[in-house]
From TrEMBL:
Its EC number is 2.7.13.3. Pfam families: GAF, HATPase_c, HisKA_2. InterPro entries: GAF, GAF-like_dom_sf, HATPase_C_sf, HATPase_dom, Sig_transdc_His_kin_sub2_dim/P, Sig_transdc_His_kinase_HWE. Residues 33-181 form the GAF domain. This is histidine kinase. Keywords: ATP-binding, Hydrolase, Kinase, Nucleotide-binding, Phosphoprotein, Transferase. GO terms for molecular function: hydrolase activity; kinase activity. Signal peptide: none annotated. The keyword Oxidoreductase does not apply.
Length: 388
């Protein structure tokens, strides 16, 4: 642009450059790729300086050079391929070293600077370079190249510096977004790997339970006395109760908790399913429990329902067993109630292990066991703290 601008022309230039800065600020806020962002930047600066050739160079630490990343007005084979040195005889190299603008009015005859072949091929005479700052360091260089003698004044340098600062902030924001996306992607990959390992672990655990149950079934078949066979059957029921909890866990996509109502329903359906005369009803309070709490809670249900089936009803009798799951957020508790309308508890049975196990499992949960006295049958309630 000529140096003898009138005041009116200078004012129009300032206003035009303000509009260009505003336009680039809007562009920089859009979700553009880095390549499109820089290409827009070079096009706008070309318009602001009314020159045909502008370029952005990125500093590469590994090869130790400046790569032309974006530009307008250059012949094919320059953008994305041409590199410039970073020594003090290179105009952009001097800017990189000093983090300061470099202005050269007659590059072909300036003894302090080297005339790069890419600039000679385009007949470049005057250049101005400013640093592009990124996170407190020089990311690269913004260069305006004129193919005719040009005096770049303080206003030119100030505008180009402000523009380069805007570009640096936009690049830094994009880098932060890219790193965030990468972290989220890595977290997703880690979660997927963890879920895959969990599924594999659950599969192995299920296989182990099947091996244990097969071994117990084999031992039970070789047992002679009915009492011993019954004891083996009881142990198998308890192992199966634990296995069912792992089955429930494996059906939850990415979950680490057991839907306790579903678990209890599956558990009750597998406890002596041959007793057609007895109905087992589950009243679900929609509680979810971690596996380490669901297993002892499920074993409590298993023992109490098994006791009711064995002792509460006559062999040909009918009745009902209700399992009620309640959550009490005000008390911070989950309560399990198992009740039946049978003959009642009666005197303690010699060698009875079921109720002792219930007390032990309740202690493991940090809870308490309360036995009610209904008009008919039995009622046992176990309450324990809700999981955090």
């Amino acid at each position: 642009m000529p140096d003898d601008l009138t005041l009116e022309a200078r004012l129009e230039r300032v206003l035009d450059r303000q509009r260009i800065l505003g336009a680039f600020a809007r562009i920089a806020s859009e979700p553009l790729s880095r390549e499109r962002l820089m290409q827009n930047a070079t096009a706008l600066v070309s318009r602001a300086f009314q020159v045909r050739r502008v370029k952005i160079m990125r500093y590469r630490t590994d090869p130790g050079d400046l790569l032309v990343e974006a530009g307008v007005g250059w012949k094919p084979g320059v953008v994305g391929q041409v590199t410039l040195a970073i020594d003090r005889a290179s105009p952009p190299g001097r800017t990189l070293q000093t983090a300061s603008p470099v202005i050269i009015e007659d590059l072909p005859h300036d003894p302090d600077f080297r005339y790069a072949p890419s600039l000679r091929d385009h007949g470049i005479i005057s250049v101005v370079n400013v640093p592009i700052m990124f996170d407190g360091r020089v990311w690269g260089v913004f260069e305006v190249d004129a193919d005719e003698p040009r005096t770049f004044d303080e206003a030119d340098v100030g505008f180009l510096t402000a523009f380069a600062n805007l570009l640096g902030m936009a690049l830094q924001r994009q880098d932060a977004q890219d790193r965030t996306v990468e972290v989220l992607a890595e977290n997703a990959r880690a979660t997927e790997r963890a879920e895959m390992l969990l599924r594999e672990l659950q599969h192995r655990v299920k296989n182990n339970f099947q091996v244990i149950l097969s071994f117990l079934a084999l031992q039970r078949r070789h047992t002679q006395t009915p009492d011993a066979r019954e004891r083996f059957g009881t142990v198998m029921d308890r192992v199966h109760a634990i296995a069912l909890a792992h089955d429930q866990l494996s059906t939850r996509e990415g979950g680490a908790d057991v839907v306790f109502g579903d678990y209890v329903r599956a558990l009750c359906a597998n406890i002596d399913p041959g007793r057609d005369g007895v109905i087992i009803e589950v009243v679900d309070g929609y509680a979810t429990l971690p596996l380490d709490r669901a297993v002892p809670a499920g074993l409590i249900v298993n023992e109490l329902v098994t006791n009711s089936l064995k002792y509460a009803f006559d062999d040909d009798g009918r009745g009902m067993i209700r399992v009620v799951i309640e959550q009490h957020p005000d008390l911070g508790e989950v309560c399990l109630t198992v009740e039946d309308d049978g003959k009642g508890l009666g005197p303690p049975r010699e060698g009875g292990l079921g109720l002792t196990l219930v007390e032990g499992f309740a202690l493991q949960l940090g809870g308490r066991v309360e036995r009610g006295a209904p008009e008919r049958g039995t009622r046992t309630t176990t309450c324990f703290p809700m999981p955090l």
